[in-house]
Design goal:
By secondary structure, this protein is an alpha+beta fold. It contains seven helices and twelve strands. The chain has a three-stranded antiparallel sheet, with helices on one face. A three-stranded antiparallel sheet has the order 4-8-7. Strands 1-2 form a two-stranded antiparallel ribbon.
Length: 320
């Protein structure tokens, strides 16, 4: 598991009966402070981004070279090829070579197989672990019992391919796979890069520590990606003891009902952030103002993208 390079005393895990686990700041911080940095415990490049990005470092490269065995994954250099072979490709190469045609959502089956393989080698979690950062996937919330019929059918459609990625000793416990699938849906992150017209999804990943950051429609932090590395950075002044929050989607300025419906459908909770409570209590903008806010959302996202890019550039220059 990847260890954060940022001092862990910047944030700590707290647990409550209403919100479960969350992160709170241990001190006050100004905007732009990186309070958490992490590499994923498992990740896969999206199917439509293969051949454009390196399957290991997730950096865009014009001189990618495909694996000569499976002719599916690509790397920008020998170092990345060796790294990915040790990470997962040693187990996946033969399967990728024989799967033709490649099914839709192949990357989802790959991600699940990586998580299942990791979990099979991990010790079961204990009650004491619940007040600490998670170290295994089974410590993450899965909500698998709440999965809709559509999502259950999607899981069933993945089983045939999923079984081909797993070894015989791992295949012995398929009962836990649905829970793993639910954990992926609830805790998975869309890994992003800067495209021509803004941020684009390039991969899916599971980050154990970052999964502890809860949602707010008026967040005090934002995610920044540099390849596969994730950073959680403050976007406003924060106080000691304040909860660290991010937005689970970009449409935070949509009407309350739309935001609530999305969060309930995808993440199985009702948002009770200050913004939602105020709007539910009658302070929500009228339809005309809401439409105007939607029109400004693109400009807001572009500004946030520029800020994130500037922060990354600043870190790179300072490290030289």
């Amino acid at each position: 598991m990847a260890v954060s390079a940022i001092p862990m005393e910047y944030v700590r895990v707290v647990k409550s009966a209403t919100c479960g686990r969350s992160l709170v700041f241990t001190s006050k911080f100004a905007p732009g402070q990186c309070i958490l940095e992490e590499l994923p415990c498992a990740y896969t490049l999206l199917d439509n981004k293969r051949g454009l990005y390196c399957d290991f470092c997730l950096k865009q490269c014009s001189t990618l070279k495909k694996c000569t065995r499976c002719n599916c994954v690509s790397y920008c250099n020998k170092s990345c090829q060796i790294g990915d072979w040790a990470r997962c490709h040693k187990q996946e190469c033969k399967t990728l070579k024989k799967i033709h045609p490649r099914p839709p959502d192949l990357h989802v089956a790959q991600l699940l197989s990586q998580l299942i393989r990791k979990q099979s080698k991990s010790a079961p979690c204990t009650q004491e672990d619940e007040d600490c950062f998670p170290t295994t996937v089974d410590q993450l919330e899965s909500n698998h019992e709440k999965l809709s019929d559509t999502k259950r059918n999607h899981f069933e459609s993945l089983l045939c391919v999923l079984k081909q990625f797993l070894e015989e000793d791992v295949l012995a416990e398929p009962s836990s796979w649905l829970k793993m699938y639910g954990a992926t849906l609830c805790n998975g992150f869309s890994i992003m890069d800067y495209g021509l017209y803004g941020l684009i999804d390039i991969a899916n990943g599971v980050y154990l520590r970052a999964s502890m950051v809860n949602h707010s429609c008026d967040p005090n932090c934002a995610l920044v990606f540099d390849g596969r590395k994730l950073q959680v950075r403050t976007v406003k002044d924060v106080k000691e003891g304040e909860e660290c929050t991010i937005s689970y989607f970009t449409a935070v300025n949509y009407p309350t009902k739309e935001r609530q419906a999305f969060l309930d459908h995808v993440h199985y909770f009702t948002c009770k952030c200050v913004k939602c409570i105020e709007e539910i209590n009658g302070l929500e903008p009228d339809a005309g103002l809401a439409e105007e806010i939607r029109g400004l959302e693109k400009s807001k996202e572009e500004i946030e993208m520029q800020i994130q890019f500037a922060l990354i550039t600043k870190d790179i220059l300072c490290s030289q």
